[in-house]
Amino acid sequence: MLPRPTTHSKALGPGVAGPELAVATSAVLDRPPQPTAQRPLSGAQAFSVDPSLVESADGPRQHTQYPYVTGTSVLAVKYAGGVMLACDTLGAYGSTKRYKSLERIIRVNARTAVAAGGEISDFQYITRLLEELATDDYRTDDGIELGPREVFSYLTRVMYNRRGKMDPLWNSLVVGGVEADGTVFLGTVGMIGTHYTDSHVATGFGAHLARPMFRERQSDDMSEADAEALLRDALRVCYYRDKQSINKFQVAKATGEGVAIGKPFALETKWDYKAFAAPTKWAIGAW
Amino acid sequence: MSGIGTGYDLSATTYSPDGKVFQTDYAQKAVDNSSTALGIKCKDGIVLAVEKLVVSKLLVERSSRRIHNVDRHAGICVAGLLPDGRMVVNRAAEEASNYKSFYGEPIPGRVLCERLASYMHLFNLYWSMRPYGTAGLLATYDEDGPALYLVEPSGVAHKYHGTAVGKARQAVKNELEKMKLGQLTCREAVVEAAKILHKVHEEDGKPFEIEMSWICDDSGRVHQRVPAEVLAEAEAAAKAAMEESDMED
């Protein structure tokens, strides 16, 4: 870029953008300066200021407060003797299917599993926190292990604390497991610390697509096979309708025997349903 | 100015004319007077064992621990002043946790030992501080396999095949030297350790209990207390062996 013409008049001082020079140089003639809102050619004060050019009063701009690589819904149900969690293994970069084998379910200890949707790097950070928590718990060596309820409570505090700093961890977490006394626990924490426990939970899109099925078919004393069948059906429904999911899933079980995270698998799908061909045919008001 | 230190023992920053730092020596004495602790490196792992005198019948069993976890793959058995020992263990845990968060992998035994030794050594450098009256038997299991270290109050640390600290250290070391440590498994070493501790404790006659931990394949390469039933078995075997040798006498 050519240098801006500057005045050498003693009144204005050297190096100051000011009125057009009395004798235009060749550079000026080649590319006559154009006035902008920020730099009027008159040398007067700028009358309007582009906020992006001004350094903010409270420090530099934060660019980390949006999710980049994300995981979609997590589904989980209680059944007789445990909790089953399920999700796909996609890390989506916007709508690009960027990472296809991300495991989004972790084992915290023998009795607790955590699954996450949302920003994957934030989940990796949370994973590290939980690892530290579990190691500390191991170190104490008092014969007591953190239960899912305690891990859940810890996570609610972490999430709420971060939203309080206006720097939330962009995740929806599901915590499931079995307490020392055999009670089955299932809860979810949102990115701003909202949390609840229930017999079945689903985050993200799953809250709309899977929970109606859970309400119909889930019961706390259902068998493991029924629970798995229900979750598979729910995963399939989510996969049909959620653009940011792939047909590669994981199911984890947390029971009194421990946490078992299953190998990834694909579901049978069928795309030639008539309703799929004309999805809005019976939906009045849709187009 | 008379007595053993004759004025040169008031701080860890003053040498005696023959080149000793008496405060450091005294700290070592605190360790030497403690009840006996031993560590054995076996072919598949490490066993730590310590005798604990039962100071009162009212004392709850297995209270006041002397073997602590530092991380999943490391543990310390402390000899000497217990409160000092706890400080050292806490520091070790901090180092382990820091290392993990910085480098993303568990702290290697060598590094942990080095850092602990430096920490202990710090307290030998300032007149305002007292060297720790404690020594730590450090058992680790990392990529290079199991390792046993002893960190002393002076900041000296060595790696061992087997060693002992405390009152009966010499007797225990004699026993360890007789054994073929390289061929021993941890399960066998647990029994051997119990036997040794019972044997060296014989004259004393005071009641004691044994605390034992291991880190080996049986424990999933994780430092943990030897399961109660394994320990009970070992103690029973040790007592039987004692009686047998009594009969011979």
Automatic annotation (TrEMBL), chain A:
Pfam families: Proteasome
GO biological process, one term: proteolysis involved in protein catabolic process
Main location: cytoplasm
GO CC, any one term: cytoplasm
Lineage top rank: taxon: Eukaryota
SUPFAM superfamilies tied to this protein: N-terminal nucleophile aminohydrolases (Ntn hydrolases)
Keywords tagged on the record: Cytoplasm, Nucleus, Proteasome
Localization terms from the record: Cytoplasm; Nucleus
Protein function: Component of the proteasome, a multicatalytic proteinase complex which is characterized by its ability to cleave peptides with Arg, Phe, Tyr, Leu, and Glu adjacent to the leaving group at neutral or slightly basic pH. The proteasome has an ATP-dependent proteolytic activity.
Subunit relationships: Component of the proteasome complex.
Protein family per UniProt: Belongs to the peptidase T1B family.
Protein name: Proteasome subunit beta
Species: Raphidocelis subcapitata
Organism ancestry: Eukaryota, Viridiplantae, Chlorophyta, core chlorophytes, Chlorophyceae
UniProtKB/TrEMBL annotation, chain B:
Any GO CC annotation of this UniProt entry: nucleus
Protein's organism: Raphidocelis subcapitata
Predominant localisation class: cytoplasm
SUPFAM superfamilies: N-terminal nucleophile aminohydrolases (Ntn hydrolases) (SSF56235)
Record's function text: The proteasome is a multicatalytic proteinase complex which is characterized by its ability to cleave peptides with Arg, Phe, Tyr, Leu, and Glu adjacent to the leaving group at neutral or slightly basic pH. The proteasome has an ATP-dependent proteolytic activity.
PROSITE patterns: PROTEASOME_ALPHA_2 (PS51475)
Domain of life: Eukaryota
Entry similarity comment: Belongs to the peptidase T1A family.
KW Cytoplasm (keyword) present: yes
Name of one Pfam family that matches: Proteasome
Gene Ontology process terms (BP): ubiquitin-dependent protein catabolic process
The protein, known as: Proteasome subunit alpha type-3
Key words of the record: Cytoplasm, Nucleus, Proteasome
Alphabetical list of PANTHER family matching this protein: PROTEASOME SUBUNIT ALPHA/BETA
Localisation: Cytoplasm; Nucleus
Domain Proteasome alpha-type subunits residues, every copy: 8-30
